[in-house]
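Page 42, continued from yesterday. The earlier attempt failed because a stray header line got pasted into the input along with the sequence. Redoing it now with the clean sequence only.
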Amino acid sequence: MNGDARTFWQTFRLTLLVGAAGGLTACADLPKLEPGAGAQIDPASPAAAQVAEAIDHPGPWPTFAGIPEVPDDVRNSAAWRAAVEDQEAEGVYTSRNGAEDTWSLTATAAFEADARAQANPLGLHAPTDAEMAESEAYARALRKRATPPPPPR
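This time it went through. Structure tokens are written below.
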């Protein structure tokens, strides 16, 4: 078993060295991979002279000293953490106060009865045939008892 581990680590080190060498070779070829590195300059372009000058005499590579200072109005990490915690607390509050399972189609009969009760609190409904007959009988009885108005003088 110790021989297997020793062989594994020797192979691993060899693989790591080969990978590092390949990576360094690839890094050396990065300028060749830059888009437009071998492109021809259009002589009719008004910027042809400036482009040729920039290719012949490239400027210095940027340094970390060239990175601008962070503006004063940018949140620091504590402010970001507080904003994220506030947002998560709002999400928990909304989840807890929201109705549970509002989009399911269960208990539809109970929902319908509750909605009808809320929409018609006085219990109004369309008259049935029996109620219409009762109203007609009542109107006939009132007409029978009524006396006509006296004739005009």
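Notes: The chain has a mean pLDDT of 84.
Reminder to self: strip header lines before submitting.
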